[in-house]
Design a protein that fits this description.
alpha/beta; TIM Barrel; 6-stranded parallel sheet; 3-stranded parallel sheet
């Protein structure tokens, strides 16, 4: 009865749209046969293929890996979606949920901070969305998650009682203004993905903890991806200086509004145990990152099952926390 809170799907016709939405400085070409990608130079920003857009493969993957429910998002594709395309995603996910009502949990995909976002949020909720999907910083307007311009959005999300599920961004926010020059250290060796994404996720966690947005909106709940980037293994190192400044109580309180998912299935046993110890098993939810690799769901299940995590903690991570968090009374 595993609940996967980090599972990717996009409407099939969106796979053919990459060339229509690529921005200046970005190119579209095949990452491999049948898999188009958006690139900046040689650095891959986003890719997709029919696997990530197949409803039948999605359900087959859930069945094969023993996952009962999947919370769906479109991965980094949200960074290129305007209001019209977000509406398209919400309609397609609603149709998918109607087809598989006991297997799918949908999120509101909206161009956060842009005109029409609040109206589309309301519409997505009317279609049954159980939360909101966001990148760890908003690359289109160029805002971090603690930007004051987001207050009206956060106010409405809080009123609706919706959690915000986040995903690493393609590029660090501070590198985007002059990307060709400033991204040079990350453009080689796929560092933009394997190092840049944990980096920008960690920065997002720290900015949320160190600003007052969680105090001003105590109903906000964030699910931070990938065990918070490097936050799980660096928590004490990152926060101890602020503890020395007398901020421990404040930071501990704000941490109660953050949860973390286990995607992708590339953590060692030592790193998982460290995350459980530093974050708490009650703050962690199972995430697979499927289908970035065809076997990610199965690998994610094995990763949790085979690393000696105590059975009660394993049940909380794989099902209990998400069932309570999403109020899935039948899970």
């Amino acid at each position: 009865m595993i609940i996967d809170v980090h599972h990717h799907w996009m409407p099939p016709h969106h796979v053919r749209m990459l060339g229509k939405v690529a921005r200046p400085g970005q190119t579209v070409r095949e990452l491999r046969p049948g898999t188009p990608g958006i690139f900046r130079g040689d650095a891959m920003l986003f890719w997709c293929n029919e696997r990530i857009a197949s409803a039948d493969r999605l359900i087959e993957g859930l069945d094969r890996s023993g996952i009962s429910r999947a919370v769906l998002n479109v991965s980094n594709w949200i960074e290129w979606l305007d209001l019209e395309l977000c509406r398209d995603v919400n309609d397609a996910m609603h149709a998918l949920k109607q087809r598989f009502p006991d297997r799918i949990v949908t999120l509101a995909h909206v161009p956060i901070g842009e005109p029409g976002a609040l109206d589309e949020l309301e519409r997505a909720v009317s279609l049954g969305a159980s939360g909101v999907f966001s990148i760890v910083h908003l690359s289109r307007p160029g805002w971090s998650l603690d930007a004051p311009q987001l207050d009206p959005f956060y106010a409405r999300v809080s009123e609706l009682g919706l959690p915000i599920f986040t995903h690493p961004a393609c590029e660090p926010l501070e590198y985007q203004a002059d990307a060709d020059e400033r991204l040079l250290p990350l453009l080689d060796h796929d560092l933009l993905t394997c190092l840049g994404r944990p980096y920008n996720t960690t920065v997002a966690v720290m900015r949320l903890l160190l600003c007052d947005v969680l105090d001003r909106f105590p109903g906000l709940r964030f699910v931070m991806p990938h065990l918070g980037g490097t936050f799980a293994v660096m928590k004490e190192r990152l926060l101890s200086r602020y503890y020395d400044w007398g901020m421990r109580e404040r930071l501990d309180r704000r941490l109660q509004q953050l949860w973390f998912d286990t995607a992708p299935p590339r953590w060692s046993g030592q790193q998982l145990h460290c995350a459980v110890e530093t974050l708490g098993a009650d703050r962690i939810m199972f995430g697979s990152d499927h289908p970035i690799e065809p076997d990610y769901a199965e690998r994610a299940v094995r990763m949790i099952a085979s690393n000696g995590i105590e059975s009660g903690q394993r049940e909380a991570i794989c099902r209990g926390n998400a069932a309570r968090f999403l109020e899935l009374t039948d899970a």
